[in-house]
Each structure stands twice: as C-alpha cells, then as structure tokens.
Amino acid sequence: MTRSYPEAVTFPFGRPGPFEPPEGLASLREERPIASMVYPDGKVGWLVTGYSAVRSILADPRFSSRRELLDVPLPFALMQEMRTPADPGMFIRMDPPDHTRYRKLLTAQFTVRRMKQLEPRIHEITEERLAAMEKAGPPQDLVREFALPIPSLVICELLGVPYADREEFQRSTAVLLNLESTVEDIHATVATFRAFFVRLIAAKRADPADDLLSGLITNGDLTDEELSNIGFLLLAAGHETTANMLGLGTFALLQHPDQLAALRADPSLIDNTVEELLRYLGIIHVGPLRAALEDVEVEGLLIRAGDPVTLSLPAANRDPARFSDPDHLDITNPATGHMAFGHGLHQCLGQQLARVEMRTAFPMLFDRFPGLRLAVPAEEVPMRDTMSIYGVRELPVRW
Ligand code: HEM
C-alpha cells in the first residue's frame, strides 16, 4: 500500500526580506512543525521546523547522516549526484563508528591552544584586508574584499598552506563559491584541490610543522586520501559558512543602526552580537539532512525507516516557543541555545574558530570605517537564496 500525503509541501526557497527565513516557514512551524515534504525526485519525506523537534532529531542516533541514504531537497544536478557513500575522511556524511574515529582525531587538533595561536593571525589577516580596501578606496564589494578572503586565509593558516600557494588556493576556492561556475568548472576545481592537497601532504610528511595537517599526520595513521579529503571538508564546511556570516552580518548591522550603535557604545557586546547574528540570520538555508534508520515516533508523528528528513535551522532558531521576540535582532538579548552550528554528534567542529573570526573581523571593520554604509539601495543588494548557504552575493559599500 502506498501512503498518500495530501498536504505535502515543497522546499521553500524565496525569502521575503534579506534577513527573513524562507517564505511560509513560520506558519508551517506553527501548524505542522514536522510536515511531509515532496523532494525533487518525487519522493516524500519530511521538513522539520519546530525547535524541539529539530533538536531531538539531531540528537537521535536513529537518524543517519550517511551520504548514500540522504535525499537533497534541491533540484540541482550536482546535489543529486551525491547518493554514494562518502569518500574516506568526509565524516560529516558518516555515522558512528566511522564518524567517531575521524571526529576524535580532529577534535584533538581543534585545541584551545591552536585556536589561541590563530587569534593574532586572524587579526593580521583582517588588518591586511582592511588596509587593502582603504588603499583601493570606495566603493568596494565587501564580499570580495573582506568576507570571502578572511575565512579562506584562516583555513590556509589552520592547515599550514605555505604563503606561496595561497593565491592559487584562494583562486580555486573562489571557483567553488562562484554561483556562475558550471558543474564542469566545479569538478575540475575539486580535482585541482585534490592534487594540491596531495602535494601539501607529501611536504608535511617530509617536514611536519605546528599545523593541523602535520598534527593529523603525526598522531594518526590516516592515508593521503583521507587527509586530503579532510582538508577539503574543512575548507568546504568552514569557508562559505563563515564568509556568508561576515557578509550578511555586516549587511544586517548596517540595516539595524540602533544595534550597531549599541555595539559601538559597548564593545563588550561583541560576543552576544555574534551569537545573536548566528541565530537571527539562519545562513544554513538547506539542512542538516538526515534519513531515518528505523521507524521513529517524533512528537506523535511516525517517521518511517528510510524516510528523508530536512531540518530547518532558520525556522528552529526563530521558534517563539524557545526564543522571546525571535524575529527581532537584539544584540543585548543573549541568544543561548541557538542551533546555528547544529546539535548532537555532528555539531560544528569549527564553531570556536568561526566565533573568533567573527569576534575579530566585525569590530575591526566598524572601527576602521566609522562611516561604513551601503553604496547601493538595500533592495539592490543581490542575495543568494537558491544555495544551501544563504547570504549576500555582493555587498557594495562606501565609507
Ligand atoms: C559561522 C560559520 C559556521 C556555521 C554556521 C557552521 C555550521 C555547521 C553546522 C550546522 C554543522 C552540522 C552539520 C550536520 O549536522 O549535518 C557543521 C558541521 C561541521 N562544521 Fe561548521 N559551521 C561554520 C564554520 C565552520 C568552520 C570555520 C569549520 C572548520 C574550519 C567548520 C567545520 C565543520 C565540520 C568539519 C563539520 C562536521 C562535523 C561532524 O560531522 O562531526 N565549520 N557546521
């Protein structure tokens, strides 16, 4: 017997305003926090928008992250190619015990000591970008000059990419993030990255230094393929996310002058500001994705073995059942408990690094350019709302 889903929704993309969650998610969350949803291939699964349901599914090992089991609610060819087991090292798309083995090795490298060591470098990298912007003069695209290069250079720093190779690294990264890149461009760039990481790993094996890749080589028995995929995963997971937080976060602060003024008046509000922006902006547009390994009842609904599940972090982080006045950006209101970095086993490995980047970059930007403002009307800022990570494509600014 086939099940029928008369009320199945489709994944909503369009956002009614630059800082709003996708259209219709608020009413869906109120009426059906776990709603059946039609995926692009016609399969029916679930879209989960309520905070408590999202949190309990992310914490539940009966929901898998294995890539070969996942369905992607995006109609793009590249995404649909993904139904094969994750490559060795790509632990974001694995379950225990494979996930556990890699995660342990990586957690040992994301130490407080290493994050502390990176802080002055993040400061220098930000300073260099701001000096370059100032020299070039207004107007400038803040995404190209600031939001994209900072996280990419920080990942170079983390992995120990030599200075001579950083331009090539950034050029290739830009292709991956360019919305106009074709599937062929992306495949070719992924191959370039693989070759790049193979060379880098050989160099680190020969001459280990005090960086993450060297640490993984010295403290584990990972193959070159695993190491190269881990390098690529860190880039993929850590670059676009942080870049969009910096770009969209700046746009949001410029559009909320009272909030920016409060931050300028009390710089100690920066930690709160970063958490509140993470909660409010909801840049993880699509996912996390999961698949039920067995029949599971969640909040009275039966999710059957094999059903694909899409969790909406933007909707969950605006749930009035969890946050007071959730549709207002308020940097004085501590946004504890948000799930911008996910929850459970796969909760973001790089969250402390991302926080240090944002806590450094936002204040330095607004200090350097006290008159920072948009160079085009706000309605003309091009948004990225058809991608899995939401943000601004460009942010033209003057100062
Ligand atoms: C503001 C920036 C960031 C956001 C919003 C973000 C968000 C997330 C989310 C929601 C997940 C969970 C995915 C899931 O459950 O399937 C995740 C996982 C992950 N993130 Fe981040 N992330 C950010 C920055 C970073 C950075 C800077 C790095 C590393 C350099 C990083 C590395 C990872 C890795 C490796 C995972 C997989 C963890 C696992 O599967 O155990 N992320 N991130």
From TrEMBL:
Record carries keyword Iron: yes
Entries under CDD domains matching the protein: CYP105-like
Pfam families assigned to the protein according to its UniProt record, in alphabetical order: p450
Region described as Disordered: 1-23
Gene3D superfamilies in UniProt: Cytochrome P450
InterPro entries: Cyt_P450 (IPR001128), Cyt_P450_B (IPR002397), Cyt_P450_CS (IPR017972), Cyt_P450_sf (IPR036396)
Keywords per UniProt: Heme, Iron, Metal-binding, Monooxygenase, Oxidoreductase
Domain of life (superkingdom): Bacteria
Tagged with keyword Oxidoreductase: yes
Family per similarity comment: Belongs to the cytochrome P450 family.
Protein name in the entry: Cytochrome P450
Species the sequence originates in: Streptosporangium oxazolinicum
